[in-house]
Amino acid sequence: MAGVTDRPFRQLCKRLGAGYAVSEMAASDPRLWATEKTSRRTNHDGEMEPKAVQIAGGDPAMLASAARYNVERGAQIIDINMGCPAKKVCNVAAGSALLRDESLVAAILEQVIAAVTVPYGVPVTLKMRTGWDAEQRNALRIARLAESLGVALLTVHGRTRADGFHGAAEYHTIAEVKSCVRIPVIANGDIDSAQKARAVLDETGADGVMIGRAAQGRPWIFREIVQFLQTGTPGAPPTVGELRSILQEHLKDHYAFYGEFIGVRSARKHLGWYVRNLPGGALFRARMNRIDNCAEQLDSVDAYLATLGADSARVTESTEQERLAA
CB 3.0-4.6 Å disulfide test: which of 11, 17, 304, 318 passes with 322? Predict the structure, then answer.
């Protein structure tokens, strides 16, 4: 979720029901810590707790140093990424590429835990996939190893690295991981509704679910899931007025975080996700992508939302036929 789960978006998701949100991947190479990009990714000023930083890399000593560096700057949880399938990450022996070398996994976990759990009491968590590919599916061994070394929680994306985001998630593998360890296990992959979250929890026995792509443009999915799990009743979509409030809050925080030049441009992808399935969304995106100042972008959002109905009206997605016709 690089470029998505920045501080403004994490804060919004937490306000809308997410119990936990992890930062974008932060570089373990100390030469990059002072760069603007890495500094933003590890900026938790004013963020609701818990403050979790995800670190990525393939060198145990560097990862340990990165963990300590972030804890000294306010991180309350360190999450190690062994799940990212991106080529630019795997090509430098990081992310899910680490799953091919279990001895390296052990060295990383040992050194990071020694760096922050032992002296600071900060828990270390692990995000992983089910393996490198179908022939190297080793999630159970990695899970047992992680537990034995002191990892506090596992998040398992139910695909191998070779799968990328294709095919159905392997919930049976997540269930096997849950059954073989005593630490909490979080299920991840293809969870795009409150009903799906309930079904995945039932199938896997997991202690929770992690939402990724389904939250893009739909941060209220978290409260929908919480409501459904607590009451069995699906939550209603936001009203037009509430959507306006959500967008204004998100955009203003986004502009303040990035500044106008970067902020107005990087906000375009978020706005595209918000309106992708709404009536007139394609035309709005085309106009909005030509706007290069914050005030005009905010005004364009208000003007578009006015076309969806009164503030009290519920936001309704257009049908596929309507989107094709547009």
Answer: 318
Please report where in the chains the tokens 């991106």 appear, as a residue.
Answer: 86
Q: Annotated catalytic, 84?
A: yes
pTM: 0.92
pLDDT band at 1 (very low <50, low <70, confident <90, very high): confident
How many whole angstroms from its chain centre is CA 31?
25
Q: Where are the alpha helices (DSSP H) in 56-101?
A: 60-71, 87-90
Residue 189's closest CA among 207, 202, 174?
A: 174
Q: Which of 84, 90, 180, 294 does the annotation list as catalytic?
A: 84
| pLDDT recorded at residue 326 | 47
Tokens standing for 227?
Answer: 């409501």
Sorted by sequence, the CB contacts under 8 Å of residue 227 that are 6+ apart come out as 194, 233, 234, 235
> Is the alpha carbon torsion for 46, 11, 246, 283 positive or negative?
positive
- d(Cα 215, Cα 53) in Å, to the nearest integer? 19
Helices (H), the chain: 7-15, 36-41, 60-71, 87-90, 102-120, 139-149, 171-180, 194-204, 221-231, 240-258, 260-275, 281-288, 294-306, 320-325
Q: Where along the chain do its domains lie?
A: 7-231, 240-306
Cβ neighbors of 118 (< 8 A, separation 6 or more) are: none
Beta-bridge mates of residue 128: 82, 156
For the stretch 182-240, pLDDT in tens is 999 999 999 999 999 999 999 999 999 999 999 999 999 999 999 999 999 988 889 99
Q: Output the furthest CA–CA distance in the chain (Å, rounded).
A: 61
